[in-house]
Amino acid sequence: MISIKEVISAKDIREFVDFQFNLYKNESFWVPPLKKDERKMLKKETNPAFAFCDAKFWTAWKDGNCVGRIGAIVNHNYNKKIGKKMGRFSRIEFIDDAEVFSKLMETAENWLQKAGMEAVHGPLGFTNLDNQGLLIEGFDYLPCIASVYHKPYYKDYFEKREYLKENDWVEFRLTLNEQAVTKGNRGMELLKRRFGFEIVKADTKPELKKYSHRIFEILNASFEELPYVAEMDDAMIALYTKKYIEMLDPRFVTMVSKDGVVIGFFIGLANLSEAMQKAGGCLFPFGFLHLMKAMKKPKVIDMMLTGVLPEYHSSGVAVMLIAELQRRLMEMGINQLETTGVFETNHNVISNWKNYDHIQHKRRRCFVKEL
Asked: What is the model's pLDDT at position 10?
């Protein structure tokens, strides 16, 4: 018999977070998150997204063992933006058991229906910088820390429950070559002369942090029309600044300005996947040492995030951002790049990868179903 338990206490939260560590303990391609960060995201006092989201989380139990988990989220800001009552299921994990899956989905769907939602989609998190999508291709590749890993059997369970494809993200592994660098440099110089664009340099973390609020202003504007995105307020910006911006290496962050004002950015990060596996979900006592080592001498750079003000989308700013990164990477002897998810319909971005030796190795999906 399967029982469902709502996540309320600190013990419940630990059980919810720890379940994935038990489920994936023998998976060589799973990258564990930091347990502390995961626990914070489930608490109202440490996650400012609860100011505009309602959320519940549950675990499933069988014979005294935790066998699954799920969350349900209503992002009111996003629903207001799109004019629909959409609920989200989130952070679902489960053993290969049809009854466990059904109980988890019923629990989330019923809660969302009672909240007045007309449809449910996911897996999605509180915001677009939270976990998104279900891995459906690429189970034999190590994901970057901004991506996801799931059990291969998950997809079949969703399809049997009549969930349909809403959107797919695709991911690429790129190998930088001299041709791409030369072409990028040529394009960068042309854009500088034609539009007066300039590369903005921030050589230290304190210098980079000065631009953090501007980066999120650009992110809000450039991502406004994308699915699953709602504008981030100051509290969310502060959270993500602390979580992400403060840990970035300025060498892998490029910015472009026009008339002294930053109009676009690119954020890269040393690939930390293997280091996160060694850390096992904890920074202490030794986890941080693995991360520091990976950041000091990276072999692969994850292409985490790019944003350009909408009025400059057709002006080649993104070309400059990537070209400057390429120049720096070649000087450092790094030629491997891992993209995060891009919508499969974003042909403009995907066409850029033709300049590299590349493989499209991962695909993740957002499913949707009427309630």
From this structure: 97
- Amino acid at the residue 252: F
Tokens of 167: 């959107």
Q: What's the confidence (pLDDT) of residue 353? A: 87
The conformational region for residue 124 under phi > 0 = left, psi -120 to 50 = alpha, else beta, is beta
Distance of CA 33 to the CA centre of its chain: 12
Residues ≥6 apart with Cβ < 8 Å to 112: 72, 74, 87, 89, 120, 371
Cα→Cα distances 284→28, 34, 74, 219, 289, Å: 22, 11, 34, 32, 9
Helix (H) or strand (E) holding 162: none
pLDDT of 244 over the 90 cut? no
CB 99 within 8 A of CB 358: no
3-class secondary-structure state, position 205: helix
Segment holding 89, helix H or strand E = strand 86-94
Residues whose CB is less than 8 angstroms from the CB of residue 45 and which lie 6 or more positions away in sequence, other chains included: none
Structure tokens at 199: 């590369």
How confident is residue 354, by pLDDT bands cut at 50, 70 and 90? confident
Q: Which are the contacts of 75, defined by CB distance < 8 A and separation ≥ 6? A: 49, 52, 53, 88, 126, 127, 230
- 8 A C-beta contact, residue 54 and residue 115: yes
Distances (CA, A) of 212 to 295, 296, 340: 20, 22, 20
DSSP letter string, 239-267: HHHHHTGGG--GGGEEEEEETTEEEEEEE
Judge contact between 184 and 323, C-beta under 8 A.
yes
Instruction: Give the position of tokens 């109980």.
Output: 103
Q: What is the pLDDT of residues 51-86, one digit of tens each?
A: 999 999 999 999 999 999 999 999 999 999 999 999
C-alpha to C-alpha distance for 271 and 334, rounded to whole angstroms:
12
Given a cut of 90, is residue 241 above it in pLDDT? no
**Per-residue confidence (pLDDT) for residue 242, from 0 to 100:** 83
pLDDT tens per residue across span 180-191: 899 999 999 999
Instruction: Report the Cα 323 to chain-centroid distance in Å.
Output: 23
